[in-house]
Design brief:
Helix content: 25-40%
Shape: globular
Largest sheet: 8 strands, parallel, barrel
Structural class: alpha/beta
Strand order of the largest sheet: 1-2-3-4-5-6-7-8
Number of strands: 8
Oligomer: single chain
Distance between the termini: 41 Å
Strand content: 5-15%
Order of helices and strands: HEHEHHEHEHEHHEHEEHH
Bound molecules: 3-methyl-2-oxobutanoic acid
Length: 271
Amino acid sequence: MSVKKIKRISYIQRCKAHGEHKGKKITMLTCYDHTFAKLINRTDIDMVLIGDSLGSVILGYDDTTKVRMRDMVYHTRAVAPAITRACVCVDMPFMSYSSTPQALRNAKRLMQAGAHAVKLEGGEQVCEQVKAIVDVGVPVLGHLGFTPQSVHALGGFVIQGKTEEVQTKILQDALALQAAGAFAIILELMPSALAATITSELRIPTIGIGAGAHCDGQVLVLYDMLGCDADFSPKFLKKYARLSDTILGAINAFNAEVRSGVYPDDAHSYD
Ligand code: KIV
């Protein structure tokens, strides 16, 4: 029987707190399907996030408010079996944790689909749900700053924490999530200085996206960092590949070769 050596939550926390991994930056990427999951599993990435960004990246929704529990369960079932090293964290989608009983029910569904931890967006207003989920033994990842499920209330894809009042609120929310038992917090789209302050105030690690270099780790959407969409280039995004060019080249080559009769040739045909 093969035993999975999954990076545990305590490993992620030791990257910040103490022990041999102190100061080692945490790495996290989103993943939505089995083929990419197998590739990520060949790397040393610490955490895989089955993010509700799959709503826009995979399902073509215009924002994450359209994502349902069954979408998250479906993609978790595709990704989780391929991951034998990283910690698999799954987003609880829009309004799937509005009350504590509902949050517990839905966290259970995600864990039974293969998650090791769940992620909720929001601060003090979700702390009761966070504590209840943690109390039944499910690790919770928080998410503050720009929280995509509130895109309409936040006025679009905009940097958060520009005023002192909002900065104080985000810090308070981070401390409340830590007190409720969250094991780490994602900080999205905020000034680096604010993320640095939050990171130094917390015992638990922060994982940034568009939040500068001072977080304890970084997360990116896999398809974004692979450059699958040439038109999506926010300032924080570094593209480590230009897959849109590679993919278009391959599709155009196939199209041309079939039309001209070059493919399939003898080497690609059976006797
Ligand atoms: O859904 C997602 O992919 C996320 C990341 C952007 C952090 O929440």
